[in-house]
Amino acid sequence: MLLKWHNYYQVKITRHLSGHNLFKTIAVIWTLLIFYLCLNDASDLPIVSIKNIDKIIHFVFYFVFVFLWIKSINPISIYYFLMVVIVAIILGITIEFLQEKFTQNRVFDWYDIIANSMGAITSFIIVIFYQSVQNKNISH
Q1: Residue 103: domain span
Q2: pLDDT in tens, 11-57
Q3: N or C: at which end does the chain have fewer Cβ atoms within 10 angstroms?
Q4: Is residue 87 part of a domain?
């Protein structure tokens, strides 16, 4: 019983201290970083010879994007979480079109869109799973 209350208050304190504004600030910075890195001509970036590393990077960009924006949302709502995922997917598609139109060394790539979308969806699933486990621990 004591552990149940300890977990409850630990979650409450962590949520209060972490603050949604901090996550929102980091989410905005992360979003701007995605725009900058994806719309900057790639000629300045170092060449890495790991196969499909760019797809892994796209996956991570959008995984973190969704995580940060979901953490910045208050109140917690599956509807808002889904909206974040939809916005992330639309953002990924939009950036691919912008790369084709406005950069010289970057091209539109369907596989980038797939990697972006998979990162966003995976982050959503993990956050939802974690939230449900956390809620079960608090209620029991």
Answers
A1: 17-139
A2: 665 565 555 688 899 999 999 999 998 888 766 666 667 778 889 99
A3: N
A4: yes
